[in-house]
Design goal:
565 residues; 22 strands; alpha/beta; Alpha-Beta Plaits; 22 helices; 6-stranded parallel beta sheet
Length: 565
């Protein structure tokens, strides 16, 4: 009932609805006048034929004939009466069966549906709303980000000006507000001055417009935006954006780094003085087949494993987990720790064929970013691209279809160390991953995924490493919200810092049983004077220290619930 009353109020106040009332009233008045004239005429003609009927009967006859029901229980006997019947019938078809439905739909039903839809999608957020995230574009990155915001208990809302888009977003289960993204009043109604972050992931022109619009409302709210072109960076920065990401370039560079031809320990993030890196088990052959505890990585070289990549899924560092060639170990330590890891495990760049090193399928922004990284490090590469405008005049480019075996052989699929698949079409990436795996069972395959749901399919098709632009973008933005407290990689791996719990004071690491009770791994202890990553079971905790731990979101929540009540 409340929703129905809101729809009526909105319908009455709606300017378009008010304009429609007059033409609808005019038509209904005209229709009533015609029916009245026909009813009166019916009486006159029946009196001419010597018959007498009531006024109700006249109205009944008029409506049955005009609506083409024509029961036939009342009829004229003269030609004049029959001609009048035909006139009433034909005008009834036109007025009741054609014009009335059209007029009713156009001037009442459509505005009513609009009123109904607009009451479903609000145009403002409550004044009590704060510390929320405003999203100005609905895309894979922001959809992925929303899932992470929910897990971290951040409120959020999308904003769009299109009513139909708003309904679709709302029906998909997301929060949405109706409003023009380039109008200051929209951000006032969305309490932008109290927001934690505003995210703009549209094109460069719209992102610039949004930023200038937001700055009319609030000068301090952080704004994170994406940039497609390098020449847009200065403009976006000038307009007031706090953080600017070139996600496609980041993705291409990351994929090139993971070919492991430059260095084996690939740094993926930093947290305080900790470096988070990864290296593949396949390149340290003696590790494959051993359990994590048998490898004695922590005892021998102080290597702290915080996660194990297994074809797109991050597994916890179970000491009894058997390492496979397809695994990638995620490690944490100081710069000195990781340098020692490189030396002890003999992680040196692999010799790459002087002519054909890395094969890149797709010469778009992601592929070109990967090529730029390889070029910078003097790693040979070949790009396969369909578009002649990109391949023209470049000896490292081959024009052709990557799904054609002749093109792949010409590009060097038989000798390449790795293949990077960078097309923006997930279906094509799945096809190419499977095709390349059939041609070269031993080759390292890295693939791009536009949607998170494609990651598992790409691994099943044969890709060793899959990078999702949606996941990378969402993680990058997520880390802006609490940069000093956590570093978010996925639902299965999160590095976070907490004060030393009172329950730990005076106890040793062995006595706390952190891993057994919470499934979190202690990575380091930070104090005002020291930063310690070399931790043994006999060390004791004091009140001054800050603990840096790693674990899943569920493990972090369990730790906080258990020790930080």
């Amino acid at each position: 009932m409340k929703q129905f009353l809101l729809q009526i109020i909105f319908f009455i106040k709606n300017k378009k609805a008010k304009k429609n009332v007059l033409p609808l009233a005019k038509f209904l008045f005209f229709l009533g006048l015609i029916i009245t004239i026909y009813s009166v005429s019916f009486h006159l003609l029946m009196a001419h034929e010597g018959k007498d009927y009531s006024w109700i009967t006249g109205l009944y006859w008029t409506l049955t004939v005009m609506s083409t029901l024509g029961f036939g229980d009342i009829t004229f006997s003269t030609d004049l009466g029959l001609m009048f019947t035909l006139l009433v019938l034909m005008s009834g078809v036109l007025l009741l069966l054609v014009m009335l439905p059209f007029t009713f739909i156009q001037f009442f039903w459509v505005p009513w549906l609009e009123a109904q839809n607009q009451t479903r999608t609000p145009r403002t957020l409550p004044e009590s709303t704060k510390d929320h995230v405003i999203l100005t574009n609905f895309d894979p990155i922001t959809r992925n980000l929303v899932e992470k915001l929910k897990k971290h208990k951040y409120d959020y809302s999308f904003v769009t000006a299109d009513q139909q888009t708003a309904i679709e977003i709302s029906d998909a289960g997301y929060k949405i507000v109706i409003g023009e993204v380039d109008v200051p009043e929209t951000y006032q109604k969305m309490q932008a001055d109290k927001a934690s972050l505003i995210v703009a992931t549209g094109d460069d022109l719209m992102n610039t417009n949004i930023c200038f619009t937001v700055r009319e409302v609030c000068d301090t709210v952080p704004i994170a935006t994406s940039a497609d072109n390098e020449h847009s960076l200065d403009i976006l920065k000038f307009s007031g954006n706090t953080s600017i990401f070139r996600f496609m370039n980041m993705l291409g560079t990351s994929m090139a780094e993971k070919t492991m031809v430059v260095r084996q320990t690939h740094i993926i993030d930093t947290f305080e003085q900790l470096l988070i890196g990864e290296f593949p088990v396949r390149d340290i052959h003696h590790l494959a087949g051993q359990t994590l505890i048998q490898s004695r990585l922590r005892n021998r070289i102080g290597l702290t494993v915080i996660g194990i990549w297994e074809r797109g899924e991050i597994l916890p560092p179970d000491p009894e987990a058997t390492l496979k060639q397809t695994n990638i170990l995620i490690i944490a330590g100081t710069k000195e720790d990781l340098e020692r890891v490189d030396r002890r495990l003999a992680m040196s760049p692999e010799k790459v064929d002087s002519e054909i090193g890395i094969l890149i399928l797709g010469g778009g922004r992601v592929g070109q970013a990967a090529a730029d990284y390889l070029e910078e490090h003097d790693i040979p590469y070949t790009i396969v691209e369909k578009r002649p405008i990109i391949t023209k005049g470049n000896n490292r480019h081959i024009q052709g279809d990557a799904a054609d075996i002749k093109t792949l052989k010409e590009a060097g699929i038989e000798k390449a160390r790795a293949v990077i698949i960078t097309t923006h079409n997930d279906a094509m990436n799945i096809y190419l991953s499977f095709y390349c795996r059939q041609l070269r069972p031993d080759i390292l395959i890295l693939s791009r995924a536009a949607e998170g749901r494609t990651v598992s399919k790409l691994h099943r098709a044969g890709a060793d490493i899959v990078d999702s632009s949606a996941s990378m973008g969402a993680n990058s933005i997520m880390n802006l919200l609490e940069p000093s407290k956590s570093s978010f990689f996925s639902e299965a791996l999160n590095v976070f810092m907490v004060p030393t719990p009172d329950a730990f004071i005076g106890k040793t690491l062995a006595e706390t049983m952190i891993r057994e009770k919470t499934r979190c791994n202690l990575l380091a202890i930070k104090t005002d004077k020291d930063f310690t990553t070399h931790l043994d079971s006999d060390m004791s905790f004091n009140k001054e220290g800050q603990l840096i731990l790693a674990g899943s979101l569920e493990a972090e929540e369990l730790f906080r619930k258990e020790y930080l009540k």
